[in-house]
Design a protein that fits this description.
Blueprint: H1 3-10, E1 15-16, H2 20-26, E2 30-35, H3 44-58, E3 62-67, H4 89-106, E4 117-120, H5 122-125, H6 130-136, H7 143-147, H8 150-156, H9 162-165, H10 167-181, E5 184-190, H11 194-208, E6 220-224, E7 237-238, E8 241-242, H12 252-260, H13 267-274, H14 279-291, H15 297-311, H16 313-327, H17 331-336, H18 340-345, E9 348-350, H19 353-357, H20 362-365, H21 378-386, E10 390-392, E11 395-396, E12 413-418, E13 422-427
Parallel strand pairs: 2-3, 2-5, 3-4, 5-6, 9-13
Antiparallel strand pairs: 1-6, 7-8, 10-11, 10-12, 12-13
Helix pairs in contact: 10-11, 12-15, 12-16, 13-15, 15-16
The chain binds one RNA strand through residues 158, 230-231, 233, 239, 257, 260-267, 292-296, 299, 323, 326-327, 377-380, 382-384, 386-389, 400-401, 418-422.
Amino acid sequence: MNFIEELRWRGMLQDMIPGLEDQLAKEMTVAYIGFDPTAPSLHIGNLAAIMLLKHFQLCGHKPIALVGGATGMIGDPSGKAAEREFLSEDTLRANQIGIQKQLEKFLEFHSGANSAEVVNNYDWFKEFSFLGFLREAGKFLTVNYMMSKDSVKKRLETGISFTEFSYQLLQGYDFYHLYKNKNVRLQMGGSDQWGNITTGTEIIRRKEGHDEDSTERSAFALTTPLVTKADGTKFGKSESGNVWLDADNTSPYAFYQFWLNAADADVPRLIRVFTLYTKEQIEALEKEHAEAPHLRILQKAIAEEVTTRVHGADVCALVIEASTLLFSKDAVELIAGASDALLAQLPIHEVSGELLSECKNLTDLISVGTDNLIFPSKGEARKAIQNNAISINKVKVTDPNAALNFDRIRGKYVLVGNGKQKNYILSFK
RNA sequence: GGGGAUAUACCAGAGCGGCCAAAUGGGGCAGACUGUAAAUCUGCUGGUGAAUGCCUACGGUGGUUCGAAUCCAUCUGUCCCCA
């Protein structure tokens, strides 16, 4: 199956410049996607773009991931209502390193001609003088053209700085640079990037168009739809914020739980975008799911596949075991018999001696006693207990003043449940 | 440069001297029903406390008043109109 067909049936194709299919059929093509180093880790909002590169490589083409060391210093106005604060150069550099490492998990970097590559646009922008840039890039676009971009138009009312206005020139120049130096023919991205990407194709066309056959395009754009949820809320955020790919920011357990909790209505789209299951496999899974929806076969399939890719098969297996363990009625016995490797994946929170000594009752323990992990204030903790939301070792507790004399599993663990979905294991010295 | 409007909790937005920790909607959290789903219904949603209460909060500062989110002065931010 070719790349475009693959994207089509997966619902990952929003828009592309005509002629791209011919280009892809003609030869091994090089394409890139840019990632902003605004955080030290990528999050699942970036995952759709990564999958785009993944499919691209699987179809025999060469993917390049561009880390925006330079563009990150400017700030992309797309989808932003207001001007952004700058990140310090140190932060950006640290972020770039983190992101680069993560990308390496998804793409094949040693597969011969179509090996993936990571590039950083800071490498070619750092030497660029301001005048040089104006002559090299700025001359090829009119302000009229740049103003007509959606990302700019939306900001005309509230204001946009010259810096952010220039962003599209930088991104456009990236494309041109890679076109010249890496033989890149295609830039991909989320649908919000269409404007920025076509700026690049425009620069290439104007700078290169004359000496080639001008009717034949040589630079292409392709975008993927933004992943949305059926209830209209933003995809990719959990209650505690972004879901990161980095285990330090989002534990593998939390990561797995995120996917497992996906709504039925969203699952058919998610499984197509975020997993590599084939069309036949997905249809079979959907059929199974429809017959026994309570088993949540689709959710499990996605959660397992994605967690395996991000955190590895071993960790994923443990996390699945941890999940079934915590939600089981016999959690207490299961924890008592759990292996060390399994324990390491459970959401265990160490309760410090000092904090514990300040706790008079259960309310104190699940708020201040746990560094506000479970509840941010005593008031909320008390209300949750009164609302029948809290369980200790799988038994509901309704007295906010309950004493802290619970049975400790293995002599040190206490299992705290908040609601149906959230489980914590407190560890006492 | 001149004139006008506006600033309220996570967001939107009412309140315009005491009944205001502040209506209403959204969002969030929880309970019930379920499948760790969705929809629906119910409760909660500044802190502390068992509670009367106390503390902190309606852009900043200062004032008037027994009493201010509400009135006055001033500063700051934002928006609109004229030049």
